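WARN retry 2 of 3 for item q-0093 after timeout on previous attempt; input resubmitted unchanged.
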Amino acid sequence: MFCRNLLVLLLILSALTGWSQEAKKKRIELLNAEVLEYDEALGHKARRLLGDVIFEHEGTLMYCDSAYLYEDNSMDAFANVRINKGDSIKMWCDELNYNGNTEFAKAKRNVRLEDREMTLTSQKLDYNMATEKAWYNTGGKIVDSKNTLTSRVGYYYSALEEMFFKDSVKLVNKQYTLFCDTLRYNTQTEVAFFLGPTRIISDENTILCKFGWYDTEFDIAQFSQKATVYSADQSIEGDSLYYNKRFGYGLALGNVVVTDTAQDIILTGQKAKYYEVGDMVLMTDSAVMIQDMGTDSLFLHADTLLSIVDTVIDRRILFAFHHAKFFKPDMRGKCDSLVYSYADSTIRLYRDPILWSDENQLTSDSMWIQNRNKRIDRLFMKDNSMIISEEDSGMFNQIKGTHMTGFFKEQKLHKVYVEGNGETIYFAGEDGAEPDNVNKAKASNLVIVIEENKVKDITFLTQPEATLYPLNLINLNDMRLDGFDWRIKERPEKVADIFNW
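OK item q-0093 returned
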């Protein structure tokens, strides 16, 4: 029992001795003052110090014009207050309250804190010298060699080289201006994290997001949560946007939307790559182009959509690679690949192109669709051209030729000019009655007029070879021109069908 009590006593004495040494270690030491007075009216046996006052505490020097030093190891300093903490931290203010036991300083009015990298100014600053943590909540500004930052609330962790800002945060440098709700910045890694509604404005673009980070050393950034980048005539948005400014490369993932405001064209998909050279956008994974065509819209899908600026004419071109299929109420089509030039509003279809204009099926080796004022104006069909429409069950009107030019009126195919090796099969009846005969003809060149999706008139520009057959004397299967292929099952009936190949 005696030994146990002795051990407890020794532990208590050891703790008291340690506390006494710690308390002694933390006393504020007065190094200099021109005048020293005691002012017991303030309590704590306060000493009033005047003229060139200098204190030292835990290696930190504090200077001021006047001060009060209290018995409880605290002090108040006034006028031209300056603090030097080693060779790394310096602070100035008009008024300072400092507690030597906690190494906690409260600075007021014209506060300036400097380290090797930056300067912090505020009208009120709390600074824990033990942890090297400083903070303000009445507004402050931080300036370094590249940036100027202001905010309502700010925290600075010198030991961790971290800064945290909240409420009305604004960061300005030569490249951009950033506005956000919350910002965290590491001065060593030079990486900034921003949270809440964020807006970044530069000469090239404006960025909006709710979360992101930016590596200021390597010019790499990532934005998420309704992230959008706006440029002069284009915007890119997605669930996540990655951007490497040094290499001029960007990556957008998840619900990506690229909008060309100049052409009223939208690209959507799940993945897009962006290259500054050529202002290029490469869209994949459920890629769709949507263009406003006045009364309705054109929807185009392909495995890959590539949008790039032709620097020669300074206009954008869209490439759709593989399994291209599009839908418009009065015009549907598909091909392997196509090119859409915004300069002349022309769509060029390659490799097994096929169009459906109302009830007419059009095929050729290649096609050009020319738009005017957001409306289809002309169609150019090159090599092995054919138009087929179903008159009745098993009865197909057919037009064939080397090349064809289609003219549109009110978005409907109105006239067709056939050039070279023209052939026609046309089912007709008297005065619009049910067909009772079929006319089969050949001519080098001819013109066909179509009204209400039916052939109204055929004009042969060269001497034709024509035969009229009574319907009841022929086999309908014999009424097929070479190359006949009725592909109605491939025709998209709704927008969602553009994804079905």
